[in-house]
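Re-running the complex after MR caught last week's input typo. The corrected sequence lines follow. Everything else is unchanged.
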Amino acid sequence: MGVAKVSLVIDGRQIFAERGASILQACESSGINLPTLCHLDGISEYGGCRLCMVEVEGGRRPAPACSTPVSDGMIIKTSTQRLVEYRRSILELLMSERNHFCFFCEKSGDCELQALFYEFGIDHQAFPPFYPRFPLDLSTENIGVDNSRCILCGRCVRVCSEVVGINSLDFVNRGPDTVVIEPGSIPLSEQGCIECGACAEACPTGAIFTRLDSYRGRNEQCDVIRTTCVECPMACDMRVYRRDNNIVRISGGGLGGRYGGQLCRVGRFDVPKREFPRIKGCYVSGRSCRAEVDLPEAADAAVSGLRSIREKYGAESIAGIISTRCTNESIERFRKFLSDEIGTDRFYVLESRTGIAMYKELRRIRGNARMEVAGLLEADTVILIGLMKDEPNPIISSAIRRAYNRGATIVSIEDGPHLLSRLSHLRLELPSWKLEIFIKVVLGNLETDCGDDAIVDGSRACGIPRSQVSALLDCIGEGKRVAVVAGLGLPPERGLISSLVEFSASLGDRGGIVGLLRGGNSMGALDMLKSVEPGDLPRELDRQGIRGAYVLLSDEEPEFCEGLELGDLDTLVIQASYHSGMTRAADIVLPSRIWSERSGSTTGLDGMVRPLRQITLPPEGMASDRDVIGILSSRWEGG
Amino acid sequence: MAGKKKLRISTAWLSGCSGCHMSMLNMDEKIIEIADRLEFVRSPLVDRKNFEPCDVGLVEGAVSDDDNVAVVSELRASCRELVAMGDCAVFGGMTSLRNLYDKEDILRCAFDGKVADDKDIDEHVPKLTENALGVDAYVRVDHYIPGCPPSPDSILQVLSCLLKGEPVVLPKELIHYDSRIRRRSDEND
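Corrected-run output:
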């Protein structure tokens, strides 16, 4: 059975629309354009700008199309002389109310308000301007708020509340003094803002702007490339604006998309700021010096080094270490070279020990224990367990906050405060070494009918009040949708993680677990490399019988690389984008492309494979990661 | 059109950068087509400063001091139709940035300690008005050409309408509030 349709007439055309749709939706689906400012797909309607007013036959006055539902037999006119005059008057009033001076506004050219002024042919101010003097809010690093360009459409307020779930912005004051951030009062940086930039993306004027990319260029002048963020396993959709091989700005995948089209501060602002000294050529370290050589020569050196290790100590003394930022295609080529050609199965993935253990347990149980991130939105009980102080990531935080805003109960079992501690209705403070016993005694016994024993035992074993344990069990018992969010702060003990996963599986259709990972393409790497060492950051490999290593470091930040101490190896081959302490210690250094220069695919936390598209050109002559491995591989075969 | 009376034009340059006058000259070869049908009565371009009765007044720049007020009032009185040319004359433009601050602060910031004799300033320099405003805050304006600067095409369009004696219509695509952005689609042309 299809969705019930109603029939209506718009501008003399018969149109069918879904029951419950707004007049605006009916117009859009049949190609009739209405001017709008406060409407934005993906958030609720506000009906504040009054530009989409239409005349409904029989109605006493025009009705806003965005917030009037269609009904059968409606006869609607969208562009009568009277409506056009009304809209023009609204725009003329808007133009004079605040400081809409396109000639020094960053948004000019991309501004929706300006586009409407042009559309209505407004060539001067019909009313004398006010010149209000609202101070700027530049308290955050990345977002600027200029209330004097604000038209009070409330898009930012609704995005911040409905998509990000954080409510940093709201209307303050009344009448002509209404603002979204009160100047001189609490600045945006102290309103809990996470600088995700969603408000700036939603703003139709220059009132909320991103400080990083202001005056770098208009969207109009850029190519837009849709790709995937590889900063964390959420794999958010990204739109990258490119002009002349430069990244101008990055925005989310569009409201209403996956995760509400969100992008966090890292993806939107930190990624384009990232700049470190690049490795552009190949280097080989001799006894006393280090020489820049061409790729075939470096490949020969690498292959002969690794070959002599295999001959002396066997293939198993060669390790493959791979960053979680690589494309699936590079990982597969890397695996093929090391596993099929060299013959070693010792792989390390630069993912946390807990993440790898969680991945393996979820694989083992397979199926019903896992919960998708979207499932968090429907949860009425969320159990946060083992979150570190900067967890969960902004996208998952948003989902949990939105659940909270709708009345979900949040329970936090924590060793220390994390980002959502203050939100939690129930906080059980539990040192991580007591977690395993807690999970076994309390959560493990839920199925069996000894609830009271579980409370007594759990309380005694873990040293937390009985009332808290019973409150937790009540939450789990009463919850219709129970979500467990497991952080990377959990001790990486298999028994503990396995009990937690089994508990989640025992919830059946009622819930599941979201197990966090650190790396952007950890899922891809763990999926493809069958035998991954249960590793964290590999350390002192020489003590584990490893004499040589091939490290595909990709564009990991130098600071992160400093944490890797591989020990004394006979041959260390590193393929990396940036110079770091590690590349200085390597015997052979090969170049690697950075995120914007790669193309291929990445696998998100949900297991879906998403495309990575090339945005900028690599330094001249730099081969792709895959091709560099391919050259090593051909030398190995040939030799 | 031979034998027809020429269109007598006065132009004035108030608080602006002369970019609009430049834009007028930027009509390139099109200016030849209309040049012999125009007569500049008064203009910074022809260095004639006396106000004589004329058909059209074109004014560039915001009204920002009492000299501007006097000039624009005389221009209005001398012409039949007044055209505000450019963002400054239409909206106040760049000059109106000072409206976001106190007048005295601006003066102090720009000139304090840099000018020798204050008495001279009071005598010979026009006094700033409270706000820098578009021309229509002081006199009636008949036609507006926004833009910073307005494109030569938009000025030509208005002059052509006036030459033909037709109602002045500025099509939507010729209206813009800052320098016209070169869009991708333009670059491909």
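None of the earlier attempt is carried over here. The helical segments of chain B are 19-25, 30-35, 66-78, 87-91, 103-111, 118-124, 152-164, 184-188. Chain B is about 35% helix and 20% strand.
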